[in-house]
Amino acid sequence: MGSLESVTSSVLSYENVVHAMSGAVGGVTAMSLFYPLDTARLILQVDDQRKSRNTAAVLMEIIKEEGLLAPYRGWFPVISSLCCSNFVYFYTYNSLKTLWAKGNVPNTGKDLTVGFIAGVVNVLLTTPLWVVNTRLKLQGAKFRDDDIVPTKYTGITDAFQKILQQEGVMALWNGTFPSLLLVFNPAIQFMFYEALKRQLLRRQTELSSLEVFVIGAIAKAIATTVTYPLQTVQSVLRFGHEKLNPEQRTMGSLRSVIYLLKQRVRRLGYLGLYKGLEAKLLQTVLTAALMFLVYEKLSSLTFRLMGLKQ
User: Fold this and answer.
1) Inter-residue contact 138 to 58 (CB < 8 Å)
2) DSSP at 242
């Protein structure tokens, strides 16, 4: 019983809440600043007929055709989803890390495992939010691909209701399979981040803001490049314009993932698997670097104010 109480106190601790809140605030701050880059990335991933191939050109097209605020279309649902997602991920990650750290020396293998488990929990809980925000983010966009059917949602609640009514409950988990594969993205990111952080802390007691920013950027760049083709498939499945059966969009859809990857190679060549990577790298690397910076500084400050040991 004492062991169960120890586990419960480790999981339900103020420290984990501080980490989760700091991660959520860091993610929201960073995404809000670099949001237009994410809009460009998503357009490049789902609209195969668009001639423009780089971030700047796509952003200029969006602004010219749809208005100055168009790059911020769908900001609220994305930020809401990101806030929930980061809270879940950071809380789970730090809870598992705390439990595993007792009597164990941290290493990259453990960091990867903890990051993977936290990612699976996060995907299963928050995928419906990301399906809805992908639909809202692309609503009103001027596509070149005629096969894309425009959606008409008035907000987050309306989108949930219409997806449930018209497509069924499992449509809210569209793209779950590639999302589960993509938990390697944050797992790889945190593995490299923690490893680089440990190396630096061997020579000093605290990381500078620049050091946190740089190692956060390096970790995210590696993770994004490795997993990008799956991220493209994930976006396509969440948006729902490909002609696939409902079962192919949800869990267990390895066949649909392979099918979409092959279709992309057939239409655009192997480089088509990395269409939009420039926008994704620019956005995610800067976003992750700033997120880690805000996370580290905010959590450190909070721990000091609360008199807790970090």
Assistant:
1) no
2) S
- Could you write out the DSSP letters of every residue in 178-193? HHHHTTHHHHHHHHHH
Cβ atoms of 276 and 44 within 8 Å: the answer is yes
User: 25-80: per-residue pLDDT in tens?
Assistant: 999 999 898 888 888 877 776 666 666 667 788 888 888 888 888 888 878 878 88
Q: For the chain, report the end-to-end CA distance as a whole number of angstroms.
A: 27
Contacting residues for 218 by C-beta, under 8 A, at least 6 apart: 192, 196
Enter the tokens of residue 33: 């600043």
Residue 301 pLDDT exceeds 50: yes
By three-state DSSP, how is residue 105 classified?
Answer: coil
* Cα gap 158→171, rounded to integer Å: 15
Distances in whole angstroms, Cα of residue 284 to Cα of each of 222, 276, 277: 11, 12, 10
- Give residue 170's pLDDT: 82
Q: If you ran DSSP here, which 8-state letter would residue 206 be given?
A: S
Instruction: Give the tens place of pLDDT for each residue, 240-282.
Output: 555 445 544 444 466 777 777 787 788 777 777 787 677 778 7
Segments in the chain forming alpha helices (H): 2-11, 14-46, 55-66, 75-101, 108-138, 156-167, 176-181, 184-201, 209-239, 246-249, 254-268, 277-306
φ, ψ at 74 (rounded to 5°): 75, 15
pTM for the whole thing? 0.71
The rounded distance, in Å, linking the Cα atoms of 81 and 156 is 10
The letter for the amino acid at 245 is N
d(CA 187, CA 212): 18
Distance CA 277, CA 76 (A): 24
